[in-house]
Amino acid sequence: MSVMDKIKGMLKGHPDQANKGVDKAGDFVDDKTQSKYSGQVDGAQDRLKDQFGSNPDQDRPPQS
Fold first, then answer.
1. How many whole angstroms separate alpha carbon 54 and alpha carbon 48?
2. Does 4 or 63 have the greater pLDDT score?
3. Cα–Cα nearest to 21, from 57, 29, 63, 35
4. Cα separation of 38 and 49, whole Å?
5. Where is the composition biased (Basic and acidic residues) (predicted)?
6. pLDDT 10s digits, 28-63
7. Which residues 6+ apart lie within 8 Å of 41 measured at CB?
8. What is residue 9's three-state secondary structure?
């Protein structure tokens, strides 16, 4: 069992907490990098939320 499978199992049924954690981690990275990589961080947050099955922004158009 991979680490990602373990994380998914722990977060299953808790999408709100998963979203908060992903957002908080992204905000931390943005703060430490002075938002230099905010586009990449936003993309990574969306992919993580997709992995955990809790992305409310799936219908959002891509940002340029």
1. 9
2. 4
3. 29
4. 16
5. 1-34
6. 999 999 999 999 999 999 998 888 766 655 555 555
7. 26, 29, 30, 33
8. helix
> pTM to 2 decimals?
0.69
Q: Taking a C-beta distance cutoff of 8 angstroms, is the pair 8, 51 a contact?
A: yes
> In a 3-state reduction of DSSP, which class is residue 8?
helix
Report the Cα–Cα distance between both ends of the chain, in Å, rounded: 37
Cβ atoms of 44 and 23 within 8 Å: the answer is no
What is residue 62's DSSP assignment? P
CB neighbours of 62 closer than 8 A, spacing ≥ 6? Answer: none
Q: Which amino acid is at 6?
A: K
